[in-house]
Amino acid sequence: MIPGQAFRLNPALQGYAAAILQDGADASVLAGELGSVDRLFGTNSRLRAAMSDTAVNAKARKLVVEELLDQKVSDKCRDAVGFAVASVPAPEVPLAVGWLAHRARQVADLHDVTEPALGHSASRERVGGFASAVLADLPVERLEEVEDQLFRFARVVESTSPLRAAMTDGELPAEVKEAVARDILAGKVEPVTERLVAYTIRGGRPRDFVGTLDWLVEKTASIRGWKVARVWSAAEVDLDQEAQLADSLASVTGGRVELQVIVDPALLAGVVVEIGDLRLDATARHRLSQLREHVTFAGWDDRVHGDAQ
What we know:
Structural class: alpha+beta
């Protein structure tokens, strides 16, 4: 049995485990299967050596172990072990499988498995691991819907001061935040979307709530083979304009691009586009700001004020 703290530094596996173990009725069965796989790793030295071989990449390890377990355990168990062996460095694979079996037994026995607080990147990885599990079998059209729902909810939180204050309050209990989110989302979004929002509250960092939702939007798009471009526009963008902009950005990024458009009249005119680390600012406000800097640096302000005197 592997102590729970052994994998505090593997947040993606924590999140994945949280997702597959949420169904209490299945946890006991899954714990038994994972326990059997853990014992197999413990007794089969050839398997343990193969999975711990640093010359074998993560994708290959995953394929090998999934083929080995196919039709011998449930699909959920097979996929979980595959995720575990691919999510850690090769020498840690037996420990990862052992930790997963131990965590499943904890949940099956109704033990408290509250996750510890993590840093910014690690928290996002933990939520990403959760998302990897719950999004795995969704058809493309539902992935697209979940992506849109996450984006729209993030914008609602971002633009509603009381809601944003509640969701980013580190002192407010997660249960209260989850209840608020459920009241807002109930009957309006996919059940998967509700699960992702709830785990973002529980497994992410409070002050990064909106940022983590936006990160999930990008993750969902990447599963579909798309990149997300966030577009802030001073005016409404019609379908033809969206299509032209998407085509232009696709030629820049070398892949299909999906637009998430936010209308912001304060920009005066034009658009701001963000794709990952790439930022393009073609707004009137930006050009005015540049002009103001030029005027100041050129000393025009001094001359104008001098003439006025």
